[in-house]
Amino acid sequence: MRATWDIFCSVVDNYGDIGVTWRLARQLVAEHGLAVRLWVDDPAAFVHLCPQADSRLLRQEQQGVEVCAWAADWHAVEPADVVIEAFACELPAVYIAAMAGREQKVLWLNLEYLSAEDWVEGCHGLPSMQSNGLSKFFFFPGFTSGSGGLLRERGLLTQRRAFQADEGAREDFLRRLGVEPVAGALLISLFAYENAALGRWLQVLAAGPQRVQLLVPEGRILSSLQDWLGGPALQVGDTRQRGQLHIQVLPFIPQDQYDRLLWSCDFNAVRGEDSFIRAQWAGRPLLWHIYEQADHAHLEKLDAFLAFYKEGLSADAQVALVALWHAWNSNGPIGECWTQLLKSWPEQTTHAEDWCLERASQADLAEALVQFYLNWL
Ligand code: TRH
User: Fold this and answer.
1) Which numbered atom of ligand 1 lies nearest the CA of 87?
2) Any idea where the domains of the chain sit in the sequence?
3) Is 4-150+365-376 in CATH node 3.40.50?
4) In testing the pocket of ligand 1, which one of 256, 273, 302 has its CB within 8 Å of the most ligand atoms?
5) Tens-place pLDDT, residues 145-183
6) Could you say which residues form the signal peptide (predicted)?
7) Is residue 119's pLDDT more than 80?
């Protein structure tokens, strides 16, 4: 009998919650042969990531995963062997009661947000006793072997390298997206929240010595882009040129295609959690727009990652990297910081690939979850 897994996803905002859980669910099915139900409380957000899905269906199978609507009026179901509440979402009370009453014991996990902070290793895997006698375990993704690891599908890096080694594949992919490559241009993808620093970066790119092609999937950053460009409201497919800078607005594309976009670009600006990890697997220099938290807690998270990521870079390259990421996340002088970063470009590029390979030597998150379950049994 295949072990059954229930993953609960409450979409708070944006696409990170559903992006992570949908990716994890597919991997547990494809690589570990598990029977997985993904409970989503916002079917429209799911359809955004999986356009072939139907948001009206209460249950549907997508890529081997049983995707279920997590409706407010919960109907009793038999709990699975393993239950994951993603990002501390609150499970239906009836379901929790059924978990406690189940003859065969249930492993209950809270999959936490990603952080490179030191305390993660100490908290990863800890149980917390609940009032009904069940234990809930905290499972922390992370960048070190003492954490739960990062989502990474088997063969991902092999596919990525083959794609990057094949210039024709890259051009075909971009053309299918409606992108005509600009000869000799540095290709940049931009996925971010609204960011007042954007205009200062674009100003420098427009006036810079090299052509730049900027691809912007539809999303929150478009309003900042619009502010800088002025003129009529931007639509998917629109292109604009300012000096050396060629801009194109792309549609929001399926996750697999988004990977290919990241693999195609020389530099990726990403955000949140999942796109941040995918950019690391792309092996190219990146810029992270971290999800803002109360009391600037996100800035500590940003620095914890930077402290780790910058290791191995020369002193000048470290300074340039940190300054750029700070400027992007704190409305700083990103134009000057970009110019500085370009001075260590070859080093930044090599470093991105080295970082990726090092992280890929750890167990991935799905594998770590399965192993945790087997150890717990
Ligand atoms: O959407 P996000 O900002 O999600 C955030 C973060 O997860 C954050 O930690 C969390 O607290 C908050 O949500 C609630 O960024 P993220 O995590 O990168 O998720 C975006 C998803 O969208 C990711 O799976 C990649 C995917 N994507 C596509 O599939 N196609 C696209 O064209 C683009 C731009 C993204």
Assistant:
1) 11
2) 4-150+365-376, 156-360
3) yes
4) 273
5) 999 999 999 999 999 999 999 999 999 999 999 999 999
6) none
7) yes
**Claim: this prediction has a pTM higher than 0.85:** yes
Cα dihedral across residues 340, 174, 235, 49: positive or negative:
negative
Q: Is 118 a catalytic residue?
A: no
Start-to-end CA distance of the chain, whole Å, equals 15
Query: What is the reported pLDDT for 24?
Result: 98
Q: Residues 112, 259, 273, 367: which is the catalytic one? A: 273
As for ligand 1, residues whose beta carbon falls within 6 Å of it are 12-17, 19, 49, 113, 191, 217, 219, 252-255, 258, 271-276, 291
pLDDT at 1 exceeding the cut of 80: no
pLDDT number for residue 142: 97
Distance 105 CA to ligand 1 centre (A): 33
Q: If pLDDT is split at 50, 70 and 90, which confidence band does 72 have?
A: confident
3-class SS shares of the chain: helix, strand, coil, % to 5: 45, 20, 40
Ligand 1 centroid–CA 63 distance in Å is 20
Residue 273 annotated in active site: yes
Q: Are 191 and 163 in contact (CB under 8 A)?
A: no
User: Percent of the chain, pLDDT > 70?
Assistant: 100
Which tens digits make up the pLDDT trace of 125-151? 999 999 888 999 999 999 999 999 999
Widest CA span in the chain:
68
Locate the ligand 1 atom nearest the alpha carbon of residue 11 and give its number. Answer: 14
What is the CA 177 to chain-centroid distance, rounded?
21
Question: How many H helices and E strands in the chain?
Answer: 15, 14
CATH architecture for segment(s) 156-360: 3-Layer(aba) Sandwich (3.40)
